[in-house]
Amino acid sequence: VQLVESGGGLVQPGGSLRLSCAASGFTFSTYDMSWYRQAPGKERVLVATISSTGGSRNVADSVKGRFTISRDNAENTVYLQMNNLKPEDTAVYYCHGRLRSLSFWGQGTQVTVSS
After folding, report:
1. What is the SS3 string spanning the chain?
2. Inter-CA distances, 27 with 73, 76, 106, Å
């Protein structure tokens, strides 16, 4: 089982990034997928979730209107489009898959928002 995130990097405030998480080793289309983030010295928090079919999506209030989660079950990939990035969005972003009691984490990708 693997979840491999990509797309992180350094971006100026107001900029955009698109994170990708490529899944393998499990039946991706049956798993709800989420993005979490963890800022330095803080707990890991949920950013956005999408249901297995993509029919239900939720994002945290802190990113509502700026971040969008989506998935492509044919490509076994989940995305996080991040627009109008702010310095407080700086964190390591983690991909997470869950099906009942089973869950998997990716290794994380760093996002730094700074001028």
Report:
1. CEEEEECCEEECCCCCEEEEEEEECCCHHHCEEEEEEECCCCCCEEEEEECCCCCCEEECHHHCCCEEEEEECCCCEEEEEECCCCHHHCEEEEEEEEECCEEEECCCEEEEECC
2. 9, 9, 16
> Tens digit of pLDDT per residue, the chain (115 long)?
999 999 999 999 999 999 999 999 999 999 999 999 999 999 999 999 999 999 999 999 999 999 999 999 999 999 999 999 999 999 999 999 999 999 999 999 999 999 9
Q: Cα separation of 46 and 93, whole Å?
A: 10
Structure tokens at 16: 């955009």
